[in-house]
Design brief:
It contains 28 helices and twelve strands. A four-stranded parallel β-sheet has the order 6-5-7-8. A four-stranded mixed β-sheet has the order 9-11-12-10. A two-stranded antiparallel sheet has the order 1-2. The chain is globular. One of its GO terms (molecular function) is protein-N(PI)-phosphohistidine-sugar phosphotransferase activity. It holds the Pfam family PRD. Keywords: Repeat, Sugar transport, Transcription, Transcription regulation, Transferase, Transport.
Length: 699
């Protein structure tokens, strides 16, 4: 079977869609004329016949491949097995870039032309196009007659380019198949497929060893990172080992490296470095540990919770609230009470802002679809981001992920129920929330939705009656599942409904009597009760210890000493005051746009959590969280034991977020009305507790 490069592109586009696509859209996507597509479709119809598939054409609507899904999968696998006799222009440019990145010597144009089976003029034209693509990486294509072609740039820039092209061209399933040594694509030439050629930049054995090290260390991380971030880290480390062996060491500013060494992620990075040193018997420069730290700090997370009590998170929370307010105002809808949206934004923005500041970049394969389906929302979110972050240039890829968070919040339906539905999304919490919301909106009877990662899939106990819905193909997964897009088309909704009916039939067969109904284990019940106990205990402590004082004409230090002296929940008031002042030295504690200062700490001498407010007669001058000088006449003080259970930290985080929830909440806290503030706190915390109990009962 012969399939041209262009026909491969058309087949890939049509097979992955569950709805019609116009010939014009096809032509635009692969950058050819409509006439050329019509000519290719005649050949494609013959290819489809061999697999009992049909190309259905609807006038004014578009074209679509219809037929048995198994046959479609068979065709897709057959296409991937084909030996590439020609490449698309994009594939050709990727292959040229791989060759230039791999070698330290100039490459002859004739050698590139022979490898790719094209003319020297074609290679020269591809190099011209590559020049503009490489500009963002600070890399230049150097061409000299009789000398050859080479890339000019730093080792750091070359590695960044390598990571970027791998991320753009290799999906998670292909990568996972490789590291598990079960590649589905086995073409006649092992370097024929683009993904295999890209991953060929690193020895497969190195990838396997590095993946094992990352897996071991990842298990000890205090937060879960998205599959794409996990894979990105493995690729980063494997490339680093490969390049160090070839003498390619990176440089890092000493002062910046020292700042990174103070970050909690540095210890994790050093642990990885030490393990890699031992395995590969090589010296790894300190700068490499610094870059691993940066990768961890910029990793997309898979969790949807962030303790706003943490210093950096509180500053991000302020920005998240500002962005939500902007979108609220522009769309005339209420979003500030949506805790899921708020938490999701804080979780996404924290590493995203780091990536933007460090010019690390990110890929978003869903961007074209997001811009097409959510064009108006994309424009509003982009405008909001420009207003909230005026000093930053935020790429459209990041805007796209933010749109998914807001898009998932707009319908607002959150039903719950007994059926388990596992959602596999590789790109993080925004994508999964978008899909979950679309499923809940279109199929409200679909309940018990749970997000799991690609790496957790085979370790998760999934019953026969459970549903598995994924946004990526799962060739190694043995049981029935369906693949949909995060946007969920009408056809995909019907596919999910049919899937539900099949699983329901399995469920009925397995439940002949009510006595055999699945129940929660004693361990699960015990864990839920323990969590509720921690939640209620923390809320009770906060409400009973809450107080507001008139501190009079005092400095901030004197007010803190007085405030700590009034609490009987401290082992040493002086030690806690010292910790609060040390915290102030690390950065601003004033809340921008208010007259409030937020002093908080976690300390071993704090026996129980507390939140208190202290009013000053005379404002004090201090630094805000935006590092601008400001006045404050209200001191908010939050104290937490250290260590403290996760539920307690979550409650304190919720209270921290409450403070900046809206203009009304800020005005209330600045009013000095103790009774109203306590009523407001109690009401909010009761809502929080009810939501947590509901969550725990649905597990």
């Amino acid at each position: 079977m012969y399939v041209s490069a262009r026909e491969r592109l058309i087949l890939d586009l049509l097979i992955d869609r569950n709805d019609e696509m116009t010939v014009k859209d096809l032509a635009d996507d692969i950058d050819v004329s409509v006439r050329t597509v019509h000519r290719d479709l005649k050949s494609i119809e013959k290819t489809l016949e061999a697999y009992d598939l049909k190309l259905v054409k609807k006038a004014g609507v578009g074209i679509q491949i219809v037929g048995n899904k198994e046959k479609m999968d068979e065709l897709k696998l057959a296409i991937s097995h084909l030996s590439y006799s020609e490449y698309t222009p994009d594939e050709r440019q990727t292959m040229i870039l791989c060759a230039l990145l791999e070698t330290v010597e100039p490459v002859k144009l004739i050698a590139l032309a022979n490898d790719l089976r094209v003319t020297i003029a074609t290679v020269s034209n591809d190099l011209t196009k590559l020049e503009s693509k490489l500009e963002p990486f600070q890399l230049k294509v150097i061409r000299r007659r009789g000398y050859g072609v080479e890339l000019e740039g730093t080792e750091t820039a070359k590695r960044r380019a390598m990571r970027s092209i791998i991320a753009e061209n290799v999906n998670e399933v292909e990568f996972l198949s490789l590291v598990k040594e079960s590649i589905q694509k086995k073409s006649l030439d092992p370097a024929d497929s683009i993904s295999e050629r890209l991953l060929g930049l690193v020895e497969k054995k190195k990838l396997l060893v590095v993946e094992k090290v990352v897996k071991d260390v990842n298990a000890g991380l205090p937060y879960a990172i998205a599959d794409s971030a996990y894979i990105g880290l493995v690729v980063h480390l494997a490339l680093a080992i490969e390049r160090i062996e070839r003498g390619g060491n990176i440089q890092m500013d000493i002062a910046y490296l020292k700042r990174l060494q103070a970050a909690p992620e540095y210890e994790i990075a050093r642990d990885m470095t030490e393990k890699l040193k031992a395995v590969f018997q090589m010296d790894i420069p300190e700068a490499e540990t610094g870059y691993i730290t940066m990768h961890l700090q910029g990793a997309k997370l898979r969790q949807d919770k962030e303790y706003v009590l943490e210093d950096s998170s509180f500053q991000v929370a302020l920005k998240a609230k500002s962005l939500i307010r902007f979108i609220e105002k522009r769309l005339s809808i209420e979003l500030l009470d949506n805790q899921s949206l708020f938490q999701g934004l804080v979780v996404h923005l924290k590493p995203a802002l780091y990536r933007i500041h460090q010019k690390m970049g990110i890929t978003n394969p869903l961007l074209p679809r997001i811009q097409e389906d959510y064009g108006d929302l994309f424009a509003v979110v982009k405008e909001g981001v420009q207003q909230v972050f005026p000093d930053l240039t935020v790429p459209d890829e990041e805007i796209g992920y933010l749109v998914m968070h807001f898009g998932s919040a707009l319908p607002g339906a959150q039903p719950s129920g007994p059926m388990n539905t596992y959602i596999i999304c590789s790109t993080g919490i925004g994508t999964s929330k978008m899909l979950v919301t679309r499923l809940q909106q279109e199929i409200p009877e679909l309940t018990g939705l749970k997000n799991i990662s690609l790496f957790e899939l085979n370790q998760t106990e999934i019953d026969d009656e459970d549903l598995v819905i994924s946004t990526i193909h799962l060739p190694d997964f043995p049981r029935e599942h369906i693949v949909v897009s995060p946007m969920l088309t009408k056809e995909e909704v019907e596919t999910v409904r049919s899937y539900m009916k099949r699983r329901a039939a399995v469920s009925m067969k397995k439940m002949p009597a009510s006595a055999e109904m699945k129940t929660r284990s004693a361990v699960q019940i015990e864990q839920s009760v323990k969590s509720i106990y921690h939640y209620t205990g923390t809320i009770m402590e906060l409400l009973t210890s809450f107080l507001m004082t008139k501190a009079g004409k005092q400095s901030a230090v004197s007010a803190l000493k007085m405030a700590c002296g009034q609490l009987d929940t401290l082992r040493s008031a002086d030690a806690v005051v010292g910790a609060l002042l040390e915290r102030e030295k690390l950065g601003g504690i004033g809340i921008p746009g208010t007259k409030m200062a937020f002093f908080h700490t976690r300390h071993p001498d704090v026996l129980k959590p507390s939140f208190t407010i202290h009013m000053l007669d005379t404002p004090v001058f201090l630094n805000g969280m935006d590092q601008m000088a400001m006045e404050a006449d209200v001191i908010l003080m939050m104290l937490s034991p250290d260590p403290f259970h996760a539920e307690g930290l979550e409650v304190l985080s919720f209270v921290s977020a409450m403070m900046i929830e809206s203009d009304e909440s800020i005005a209330l806290l600045q009013s000095g009305n103790e009774e109203e503030i306590k009523e407001w706190m109690a009401s909010k915390l009761e809502m929080f507790l009810n939501e947590k109990i509901k969550e725990l009962r649905s597990v």
